[in-house]
TrEMBL record:
EC numbers on record: 3.2.1.52
One Pfam family hit: Glyco_hydro_20b
Signal peptide residues on this chain, from the entry's feature table: none
Designated name of the protein: beta-N-acetylhexosaminidase
CDD domains associated with the record: GH20_chitobiase-like
Record's keyword annotation contains Nuclease: no
Family: Belongs to the glycosyl hydrolase 20 family.
PANTHER family registered for this protein in UniProt: BETA-HEXOSAMINIDASE, BETA-N-ACETYLHEXOSAMINIDASE
Annotated source species: Streptomyces evansiae
Catalysed transformations (reactions): Hydrolysis of terminal non-reducing N-acetyl-D-hexosamine residues in N-acetyl-beta-D-hexosaminides
UniProt keyword Amino-acid biosynthesis, yes or no: no
Taxonomy, superkingdom: Bacteria
Length: 514
């Protein structure tokens, strides 16, 4: 009897998938056989499926669902897995624990969409279609940056966001924790950062104060929650620009220590930047030491872009620094300062990340996120930097996704679902040596125009789904993706994802190219 031909609508698309005849019945008596090293995957499986199905999925030596680490699958890398669903058993194997976590998400997608919603539907059994899957990602870093500095978001929603990233096999959530308009990261040695820098008087003249900061316990809890789902939380602390909130809290950090400024209440690029004296370096080291204590991530993003040098041209301490370090002029202070920051992180075993304006402006040792133009990534790769592609024209989700008056406010412009999908994670035409330096792709969602979780989710989906697809799967097929996405929307609907109602009932067409 031939295998069924109906599509399974898995997102992202597995590397190899073969549909087999029959199904596996998941029921109240189904148990899990847990091999050594697979305990975290078993915990995640229960955490995701038990509330939705009502089935306890206990551990048993003869369990029908088998989770195992298998060194023989080394060819699937750190995050790949093999999944076999047969009528009498389910076997999920991976060389590394991260692969098992991704395989659990695939198992979850094999269930009917209504089985994703905790407690909504009760059934005596749920059917898993029989399949053979071998899967691994195209890129090791597949990320999403969320701006919680300009509009603070509760940690409960960040946990929900982690779950949505994990469902799509995205493995990085970057938290933009500080900016001119707010400081959200607690630093016990510098309490005014959140007490003063965490609150602005208003936003664009609306007269409504806005503020918020995370506690250390909240951040640690989020990190643990994400880690159990295979998602790395990368902190971002902006220096030496985008620091108006820090200078509002501690005026001596600025280029005019006698000046007192409020937290910035407007959008755009503020020309208030850190001074170049030892006190600023000590400040950044203190902050980063706390960041490294709280966040176990090997990667720390230090911003680095949009740093006007206007104040440095008139600051005695900055000009002294230019002379002392024998720099060509004040404009070189940004690179010098980031070099100091990068060395401090490297000395503690961390890897500095930074936004690049042109691909050649970050010190050696930095992983580069070129946001202005994809070609800047090529320049960075040729200099030996690792590159995470993140050009705003294909990755910034604060741009509207649909034309027309019904779209919520956003940046001037348009970024459609198809434009996100069609962007190659490794740009074509790069020489092989440069292409090998591309280690990831990342979307960004700045929150100037998106103050609420509902608005942020609307902007993120379904475009983030397209980015996840292309960063994981080497296959590029817009029609196939559109067909799967139309069915995948049922999962997003079941999970209550804002924005899922904007999916079409038919696959997207070429008219969405904008």
């Amino acid at each position: 009897m031939p295998a069924p031909r109906e599509p399974l609508a898995l997102v992202p698309r597995p590397l190899k998938l073969a549909r087999r005849f029959g199904s596996f019945a998941l029921g109240p008596g189904t148990a899990v056989r847990i091999a050594p090293g697979a305990e975290s995957a078993a915990s995640l499986l229960r955490e995701l499926l038990t509330p939705a199905t009502g089935f306890p999925l206990p551990a048993a030596p003869d369990g029908e669902i088998i989770l195992a680490l298998d060194p023989a699958l080394g060819g699937t890398g750190e995050e790949g897995y093999g999944l076999t669903v047969a009528p009498d058993a389910v076997l999920l194997r991976a060389a590394r624990p991260a692969g098992l976590l991704h395989g659990v998400q695939t198992l979850r997608q094999l269930l009917p969409a209504e089985a994703l919603l905790p407690g909504a539907v009760r059934a005596e059994r749920w059917e898993l279609p029989c399949v053979e899957i071998t899967d691994r990602p195209l890129l090791p870093r597949r990320g999403f940056m969320i701006d919680v500095a300009r509009h603070f978001q509760p940690v409960s929603w960040l946990r929900r966001l982690v779950d949505l990233l994990a469902l799509h096999k995205l493995n990085v959530l970057q938290l933009h924790l500080t900016d001119d308009q707010g400081w959200r990261m607690p630093v016990p040695a510098l309490p005014r950062l959140t007490e003063i820098g965490g609150v602005r008087a208003e936003t664009l003249g609306d007269g409504v104060p806005h503020g918020g900061a995370y506690s250390t316990a909240e951040l640690r809890g989020l990190i643990a929650y994400a880690g159990a789902r295979g998602v790395e939380i990368v902190p971002e602390i902006e220096v030496p620009g985008h620091t108006r909130a820090a200078i509002a809290a501690y005026p001596h950090l600025g280029n005019d220590p006698a000046r007192t400024l409020p937290v910035w209440t407007r959008w755009g690029v503020c020309d208030t930047v850190l001074g170049m004296g030892e006190e600023s370096l000590d400040f950044v080291r203190t902050v980063l030491d706390e960041v490294m204590d709280v966040f176990p991530s090997r990667h720390v993003h230090v911003g680095g872009d949009e740093c006007p040098s206007t104040e440095w041209h008139h600051s005695p301490s900055a000009l002294d620094r230019v002379r002392t370090e024998r720099l060509p002029g004040p404009d070189a202070l940004r690179g010098w300062f980031l070099g100091q920051v990068g060395r401090h992180l490297a000395a503690h075993g961390r890897v500095p990340f930074g936004w690049s304006e042109n691909g050649t402006d970050l010190p050696p040792g930095f992983t580069v996120l070129p946001w202005r133009d994809t070609d800047h990534g090529l320049a960075a790769a040729r200099r030996g930097h690792r590159v995470i592609t993140s050009a705003y024209r294909t990755s910034y989700l604060d741009y509207p996704q649909h034309p027309g008056p019904g779209e919520p406010p956003g940046q001037p412009g348009l970024l459609t679902l198809r434009q996100v999908y069609e962007a190659d994670p490794v740009p074509p035409g790069w020489e092989p040596e440069a292409a090998r330096q591309v280690v990831g792709r990342q979307a960004a969602l700045w929150s100037e125009y998106a103050p609420t979780p509902a608005h942020l989710e609307y902007l993120a989906f379904p475009r983030l789904t397209a980015l996840a697809e292309r960063a994981w799967s080497p296959r590029r097929d817009w029609d196939d993706f559109g067909a799967r996405l139309t069915r995948h929307r049922l999962r997003l609907d079941a999970l209550g994802v804002r924005g899922a109602d904007r999916f079409s009932d038919t696959p997207p067409t070429g008219e969405e190219t904008g």
